Amino acid sequence: TVVRKGIRQIIEDEDYVKAVPLIRECAQRHLDWLGWFHSHPFSGDALHMSSIDINHQQIQQQLNPYWTALILNPHQIQDSTTVQGIRAFRLQQLPGKKPSRDVHQLSLSILH
After folding, report:
1. Is the distance from CB of 75 to CB of 85 less than 8 angstroms?
2. I need a labelling partner for 61 at 20 to 30 A (CA). Which of 69, 80, 90, 92 fits?
3. Contact 37, 71 (CB under 8 A)
C-alpha cells in the first residue's frame, strides 16, 4: 500500500510489471479480460464507484468497452439490493466516444 497525495493506493507500479506475464499468457490463449474487482469493506451502503474507481474505469473501458467493475462489501452480503454483497458497474459510453463519468449499475447474477 502506498500513500500519494493523501490517497491510499493499493496497486503499486511494480504490480503492473508483475501483471505483464499474465497478460501475455492470456493473449496467447486468446482469453479476454472482462474487468476488475475490489472491496469497499465499510459499514453502511459502500457499494458505489469512487472518483478514483471512475478514473481507473475510464482508462480501461477505453481499451475494452465491456470492461466491468465489481465492488464487494462483506457488510452487505445479506443486503437484498446487492448480489451477495456485490454490485457491478460500467461507465456510459457512446459508440466511438470516450467513456463518460456517468456510472451505470449493471444487473448481476451469480450461479451456485
Report:
1. yes
2. 80
3. yes
Task: Render pLDDT for 89-103 as a digit per residue (tens, 0 to 9).
Answer: 999 999 889 999 999
Query: What's the rounded Cα separation, in Å, for the pair 106 and 30?
Result: 26
Q: If you search the block for the grid coordinates 472482462, which residue do you land on?
A: 34
Burial class of residue 61 (count of CB atoms within 10 Å of its CB; 0-12, 13-18, 19+):
buried
| CA dist., res. 68 & res. 71, Å (int) | 10
- The per-residue pLDDT for range 39-82, each reduced to its tens digit, is 988 888 889 999 989 998 998 899 888 999 999 999 999 999 89
Cell numbers given for 92: 456510459
Grid coordinates of 71: 465492488
| Whole-number Å distance between alpha carbons of 45 and 28 | 40
The grid coordinates listed for 90 are 460500467
Taking every pair of Cα atoms in the chain, the longest distance, rounded to a whole number of angstroms, is 42
User: At 100, is the secondary structure helix, strand, or coil?
Assistant: coil
